[in-house]
Amino acid sequence: MIGKIHIYFVAILTVLISSCSADLNTSTPVDRWPAIFPDYSGIVIPPNIAPLNFVIKEKGKDFAARITANGENPITIKNKRGVIDIDISKWHDLLKKAKGKDINIEVYAKDDNGKWQKFKTIVNQVANDEIDNHLAYRLINTGYVMWSALGIYQRNLENFDESAIIDNKSIDNTCVNCHSFSNNNPKSMNIHVRSTHGGTVIYTDGKLKKVNLKTKYTLAQGAYVNWHPGGKHIAYSVNTISQRFFSKNIRQEVSDAASDLIVYDVEKNRVTTSPKVSTNSRENLPVWSADGKSLYYISAPEVTDYESQYNAKFSLMHIPYDVEKNVWGQADTVISAKKTGKSVTFPKPSPDGKYLMFTMSDHGYFTIHHPDADLYLLDLQTGQFERMEVNSELTDSYHCWSNSGRWFVFSSKRLDGLYTRPFFSYFDKNGKASKPFVLPQKDPEFYDSFLKNYNIPELITGAVEPSAFDIRDLIMTEAQPVDFDPSVDKAYMEEHLRKKNVVQNQKPAMTEEH
Amino acid sequence: MQLISRNLTNLLLLLISLVAWWFTAFVIHPELHYYLQQTAFLTDQLFFKGFVGYPGGIADYISEFVAQFFHFNALGSLLIVLVAAIQGIIAINLVKRITGKSGFNFIIFALILLFSVWVQCDYHFRFYAAIRLLLSSGFVWFFAVLIQKLPRLKIYAGFLLAAFLFYLAGGAALLVFTAAIILIQIRVADKKSDWIALPVLALFSGALPYLAYKYLFLVDLPLVYSITHSKSPVILYYAADYKLYTLYSLLPVYILFSVLYQFKKPDVKASSLIVETKKENKPIPKTDKKNSEKTDKKPVFTAEKKSRNPQIVWLSVKVVAILVLAVICLKSTFDKKDRDKIFVSFYGANGDWAKVINTVEGLKEYDIFTNFEYNKALANTGKLAENILNYPQLAGSQGLFLDGAVTSDVPFVCSDQFYDLGFIYESQHWTFEAQTIFPNSPRLMKRLVQIHLINRQYKIAEKFLNRLGENMLYQDWVSKHRKFIQDTSLVAKDPEFSWKRKCEPIGSFTTSTYIQKLYKLIQANPANKMAFEYLLCSNILDGDLGTFESSLRENPQYIKYPLPRSWDEALILYSYVARKAPAADDIRFTKERQAQFISFIKTIKPFGNDWQSARQSLRKEFGTSYWYYSKCLSPKVTKVQIKQQK
What we know:
The structure holds two protein chains of two kinds. Chain A is mainly beta. Chain A is built from seven helices and 37 strands. In chain A, strands 1, 3, 5, 6, 8, 9 and 10 form a seven-stranded mixed β-sheet that branches. A five-stranded mixed β-sheet of chain A has the order 14-15-16-17-36, covered by helices on one side. In chain A, strands 18-19-20-21-37 form a five-stranded mixed β-sheet, with no helix packed on it. Chain A is elongated, with a radius of gyration of 26 Å. Chain B is mostly helical. Chain B contains 33 helices and no strands. Chain B has helices at 2-28, 30-37, 45-49, 57-67, 73-99, 105-119, 128-149, 156-169, 171-188, 192-215, 221-225, 242-263, 289-296, 312-333, 336-349, 353-361, 368-380, 384-387, 411-421, 424-435, 442-454, 458-468, 475-486, 489-493, 495-503, 514-524, 529-541, 545-554, 565-578, 591-604, 611-622, 626-633, 635-638. Chain B is elongated, with a radius of gyration of 32 Å. At the A-B interface, strand 13, helix 5 and helix 6 of A face helix 20 and helix 22 of B.
């Protein structure tokens, strides 16, 4: 009897499924692309990405989506809300089979007459190259001076798992920022801690330490950071930061009264600099070349008045530096702000050393609030640069290459003009970038209600090694002082600081109550 | 007799609950808790997720759900009393289970109720502390019932319950639970193993929070042990005090006394405290059926013989004692002034300008935020220039704007003020700052919807509207404003929104002082009378009469005779100081006011330049005049530093 019931059940189920498919097969074609959110149409996707769940934004009584690779083993999802939540294991199987090929997404909507309509098929390419499987970022409210709850998180890009690298409610609500990794490697990590329990947390060679990078001869604590490819040195800028608030388009302008560059030797626990990168100009945002033999950075003239501080235009600079011998070369200008009439920021060389991606805006370097900020690509061999096609009408700013250089992630406010979201794009061997797509979420309507910004997205090749508990416990300890390189001209540095009106016991840049 | 006594006790419990409800509703006003703490409960998963990652989070989630109803005075008061009453009933039940006596019911219940209401007198009190305690009480009761039904479980059930309770309600709740069940277990322990389990349980409960902190939950150490979260913005800072500690101690203390009371009975051995009931042989009178059912139920512990002594007198003594205690406690600690200051802010946030003004004028003590709200209320009713000096402007022009140092108590008020003035981008700036502290605040969500509708950023407005839509209490507001998203042309037709659009300063510029902002506002819309009033009042409060006079001259569209009182008086003083009589076509002051000024000068003459001594004589007649302000109250004269409240 039970056996009979079982047979009947299977038969009914089969009929139902096949009738569903039969329904879709008899749909009326609609000659336009479907409106879906997020827009996952016409993109190149990594073969190891989490399901690109989306919601169908068309009118209808019922909705369906069918996803196929080579027309085989379709994944079919049907519901009345139009929320396409793809089974993760089926998705990964599909992508595995479709590596290097296309996948098709057919979208259907049932009209008032009960008839299915089929929109133009979305075709996405599946790349051969995988993307680094984790993304680290800071989640922070839209605020300017105040903060309360924030943290640095890592998201597994192959699924929807997100975990805290550090959450500030475990460390007296202090501010954490500037997470950075050497060559996308989670085994080498840097995090800054501001205000209470201030210091810089460094993880390398399996060990955690917390240091105070401020020395008698340098301007401030380390700020913007970049690891040397060798993983033994870290370049920082040291800045006296302030901000102003504006009406209209650009709400907030962050600028520096002064800034210099330093390099920290992780093994020797020593900070060095040079008069060549601690000049009257404002050197900022250092980044190592792919071969680790030089630094790229941005530079703007020294501050003479309000206008020069807040409307400064930064040039892209380059200086050779031998980390082993501690020898600096001569700085030269790669992209001149005077020639372009614009300001360069966030330079990042590609891992193969052929290109350098940067952000350009009308002025300044802190471009997350600049709607005109766009991504540009400099061909390091020809010296030519061009505006990338991935840009939108709104802010497109901070970016990070994947370890292979075939993918990059960048911050964009294109979804609503307010909140920063991470977007991914494939970068092919010819230097062309594909249409970007937003970080997928389990709930495709997530971005409609999530009111935090994804800040400083960094691709990493695995989960961060030290546990959040170990990082928390370390942050609660005192920061260890660092040594200052005795070979640096101290008299010069003292005079340099005096000119910048810096005193020994100056307060850290951000001490506002939270 | 006992029936009468019991019914009377129950009646009294109901009565004191009603009194507590009345006090909470009409004296404490729970809507002020709701307002100050910006309570928000959202129905979506994202909101819930924020509570599952730390011990006590579930209690906090329940608390947010309950506390949102504090928005409604009567319902909120009822809920506060109900939570306390449930704890009281649990305590009564537990004591009865141990002692078999119900003679202490009134005291047991009343003390819990008193302290539960008492802690609410601090408007920073976090209601989740009450919910956590409620859960702890509930778990103790459940433990008592469990070991009655399944005596083999004994104390071992306590370990599991302890762990579960810790996750639900945090370390302090765990401490209360552990103390209570150890005491209960002391009463019923009969084997050696039962006794050994007790210190093990104590150790377990002490170590569990630490281990959870170390390995399970990414929180700070105080959070796992303390009653309230250790860190919060200054604006919400709450330090647990003796009232809360006492409230948390009551249940274990009751159980302790109950256990001690039982130990005093030498003829009743612990080993004889078995689960089964001793059945009564006496016939049960019909009227006592309910009582007989109760005695037939299986008590965990012995049932004592009930005293037949009349108890009404004793009950009356207890009632009086509790009333006296309540009056002393509440009267000595409840600060009506503090409450009224919060009321001022509350009315200001809701645009009840008349109530702001009335409440402020009833406050004797100076407070900068009260000063600010008073000025804001006057500005919104077009009476700033007329009545500004009805309140002692001890902070001078600093009482007009608070957008200086960015501390956690400032963003809300700046958000509202700049919205009122029509400086929408500035309001947006402050609203976002405030949102870093209160990410789900409905007040801020509403403001963000309005701001983005005015700024034609409809997608963003919709985002905040959707988020606010997850809050059960604002569905009407959401529906009303959704029409602006569906048909954006309606925004321009809305009188409020269209006016704000006309007020917004044009262009991209920066302003660092509020004076600059006011100039920009007037430049953008010369009809922005509020901005102009603020500007000129700022001038006169700073004693900058030259700028005041020239601003008035340059903006004849604002001149209406007679001039508002403070401007009239300032103009007279300016004329006197500048030693120039007004020309016929010049801005003129009233003759009556001029006569008052002459009288003022005559009054001060005998004192020479000794304004301090002259104050008393001047205050009665001229205390709200500009002349008195400029010579006796202005911070330029008094040199006082006004501290902002936390």
